[in-house]
Amino acid sequence: MRELKIFIIVVILTGVTYWGIEPYAHNVMHPHVGAADYDFGAEDINQAKSVVEARQKALDAAKALNDEKKVAGAQKDLEEAQKSLEDYTAFWNDIKAINLAKGDATKGAETFANAGCAGCHGVEAAGMPTAMSAAELSEAYGVVPPDLSNAGAIYDEHFLAALIKDPTKALKLTHKFNDEKPYPMPAFFGAGGEDPNAEIADIV
Question: What pLDDT sits at residue 37?
């Protein structure tokens, strides 16, 4: 009889723990997380806006101190931030205007080969190996460009389009690379077709 009472108590305590405490602990320790948002354009623009706001506050603070040197520096910083916001807004608006649904994979493969992309990148899954070895690529560019067989599964299509159009801007490396020190992957200006954006859609 004693064993039966102990068993009943254990069952009750287990039930209270499982149906009472566990759901609460799960809710607290593992709160609901919204679906991932891969809108890189909105994120870049929002970040640029926050930089503009911060620079505006810095300018207002400098004006309050009545320090002409600080005001001049803060004004310059604000103008740079505003230009960056304008650039990112125009860039992502252009990317979102690309109709990726109209892309033609066959044409994309041709453009990929003819535009020089295959000189650095391979697409082994499509029977398009890299033209140079990893050692040759590393020596020529200081980096080994990745094989792109799985790029479509890993990256958002708009980000891929942005990366093709202007990799330095898409990767937010404009502070590090410029005309004097170019990024290893050049921006895509078209491969002879009528519409470079249509060619980007084909490649994506």
Answer: 72
Per-residue pLDDT reduced to its tens digit, 123-175: 988 888 888 888 888 888 888 888 999 988 888 999 999 999 999 999 999 88
Rounded (5°) CA angle 198-199-202: 90
pLDDT of residue 15: 77
Residue 36 sits at φ, ψ, to 5 deg, of -65, 140
> What is the distance between the alpha carbons of residues 50 and 28, in angstroms, rounded to a whole number?
31
Is this prediction's pTM over 0.85?
A: no
CA distance 54 to 48: 10
Nearest Cα neighbor of 116 from 130, 100, 102, 134 is: 130
From 169, 139, 180, select the one nearest 48 (Cα to Cα): 169
d(CA 119, CA 145): 10
- Taking the C-alpha atoms of residue 133 and residue 110, their distance in angstroms, rounded to an integer, is 22
Residue 147 φ then ψ, to 5°: -70, 140
d(CA 196, CA 91): 14
Q: Which residues, including other chains, have CB under 8 Å from residue 84's CB and lie 6 or more apart?
A: 48, 51
Task: Return left, alpha or beta for 36; rule: phi > 0 is left, psi -120 to 50 is alpha, else beta.
Answer: beta
Closest CA to 86 of 55, 44, 120: 44
